[in-house]
Specification:
This protein is α/β, with parallel strands linked by helices. Helix content is 39%, strand content 16%. It is globular. The N and C termini lie far apart (42 Å).
Amino acid sequence: MKILVTGAAGFIGSTLSIKLLERGDEVVGIDNLNDYYDVNLKLARLERLKTYQQFKFIKVDIADRVAIEALFKAEKFDRVMHLAAQAGVRYSLTNPHAYIDANIVGFTNILEGCRHNEVEHLVYASSSSVYGANTNMPFSIHDNVDHPVSLYAASKKANELMAHTYSHLYRLPTSGLRFFTVYGPWGRPDMSLFMFTQNILEGKPIDVFNFGNHRRDFTYIDDIVEGVVRVIDQPATSNPNWQGDNPDPGTSLAPYRVYNIGNNNPVHLLTFIETLENCLGKKAIKNLLPLQLGDVPDTYADVSDLVNDFNYKPATLLVDGVSKFVAWYKDFYKVA
């Protein structure tokens, strides 16, 4: 297939692109290469992709309506995996407009491109953050998610609503994937594992929010990518049993689906840090802080729908995933 991967220089986007290329798909990757974090890391990810003949990279911003229209008309994609977004809960507290430009305007442009160019399936990144103030664990796609606690979360919830509208109006099959704390080699520098590793190795304190009482459903990158590929390959279908007087948030009469992709095994933050310390052979200096505005105390994914529909469940053990990240980090940054 010919697949568009937006955010191809990103953590998930670059790893997914390699998986698709290795199985023989043609991949067009786009990214605006913004400076939200180290551009050199993004460029290094792209260098890995450029070794594949069937990969093409185009630098473009998804918020550029004219450019995205031209891209879709020229390339005629079979499937689209939309990962480009302004990420980060904490960044949204101080830079709200970035989330509207990328996550709302940008997503509208992707939806329009799919609508007008006969794309067979749009898969897009949502987030576990949409569960917001929910406390019913584990988080289920069949739960109501109308109480986000950050603008980032609200923008991802908005994406799900927008996708449903296009599935309903234009019969565009759409699948939203709620990712749960993805980690692993080539990860994002603004994520806890990356920052903790850097600071521990440099002998600097690490900021531990909620006094370490967070629980997170850490999910290894290879598990995420395997799940994404399976979803891409199976266009969303309607739920014939859906009822408007008892609406199921995770499905629809339209060809629309939402899935959790998480490890289904939440880990206490202090246990996570201890695992990292063991892999590094060095103790952390912890700066214990209260829960930060916009954060949620716990995430825990109910992945039963992913298991039932795709016969797949993430399974990488935390110690194995953290060990692989540490090995990559030391190699990439030439740490002795």
